[in-house]
Design goal:
Order of helices and strands: EEEEEEEE
Number of helices: 0
CATH class of one domain: Mainly Beta
Distance between the termini: 46 Å
CATH architecture of one domain: Beta Barrel
Radius of gyration: 19 Å
Structural class: mainly beta
Largest sheet: 5 strands, antiparallel
CATH topology of one domain: Elongation Factor Tu (Ef-tu), domain 3
CATH superfamily of one domain: Translation factors
């Protein structure tokens, strides 16, 4: 699993399609960019590069909103195989905070399991520390150009 190494380097060069992109606006989420660092640093697929003030905090406890896609319900104390960036690992479900009722968008905090196709917030305890960034609590993420929003009721 990934771990945090505090390095002091800077990006020397960004290219996309063979064209210098160092002064272009930021890439969209999911875009791949070749990056060349000034210093000789071992960076591998799945490693995170972040600004010093935006560095994620490595932790074994991860809060996540998940969509459960298997017929056996997800329950606390259940062991899971997970994939974080490009690495495989193991995790334990510490808690299911709530199930999202898709009809009303209300949080059912009484539930203690997620059934097939249900969405909920869970806390996972991983065997190794993982680097993740917290979800902003100011509302849902902005839609990407390929996503659609459900109609709103008056």
């Amino acid at each position: 699993m990934p771990f945090l190494v505090s390095l002091s380097s800077r990006i020397e060069h960004l290219t996309r399609g063979g064209v210098d992109r160092m002064h272009d606006p930021p890439a969209e989420m999911g875009s791949a960019l070749p990056v060349r660092l000034v210093d000789d640093v071992d960076v591998f697929r799945g490693d995170m590069i972040a600004r010093v003030n935006n560095a994620p905090t490595p932790s074994q406890d991860i809060d996540a909103i998940v969509s459960w896609m298997t017929t056996a319900p997800l329950q606390p104390r259940q062991k899971l195989a997970i994939k974080h960036t490009t690495r495989n690992g193991r995790a334990l479900v510490k808690d299911i905070a709530y199930r999202l009722d898709l009809s009303t968008l209300h949080r059912d905090q009484e539930t203690k399991e997620l059934g097939v196709n249900e969405i909920g917030r869970v806390t996972l305890r991983t065997r190794s520390r993982c680097s993740s960034t917290p979800t902003r609590r100011t509302g849902p993420p902005a839609p990407s150009s390929s996503s659609t929003r459900p109609p709103t009721s008056p």
